[in-house]
Write a structure and sequence with these properties.
mainly alpha
Length: 49
């Protein structure tokens, strides 16, 4: 797990479009639904959707 302080510190200095999704019980894993949301967001930001 990443400490919130380091995650928020990095998030706050990134100037590119971004979203923060908190998944408190999954550590570094993700569900198939989250993977789909990630890919959809990337496609939208890349102008592919």
């Amino acid at each position: 797990m990443c400490p919130p302080t380091s995650v928020y510190a990095a998030y706050n200095v990134i100037t590119a479009p971004k979203e923060l999704a908190l998944t408190l019980q999954l550590s570094h894993e993700y569900t198939p639904e989250q993977w789909e949301a990630i890919m959809s967001w990337i496609a939208k930001e890349a102008g592919l959707k």
